[in-house]
Amino acid sequence: MTRSRSPYFLLCRVVQISLSVALFLILGLAWLYPVALAADRSSPQINPQLQIPQDIPLERLERPLRTPPAPVKPVNLNTSSIEQLVTLPGISATVAQQIVEGRPYHAKTDLIEKHILSGTAYDRITNLITIE
Question: Cα 96 to chain center, whole Å?
Answer without folding.
Answer: 34
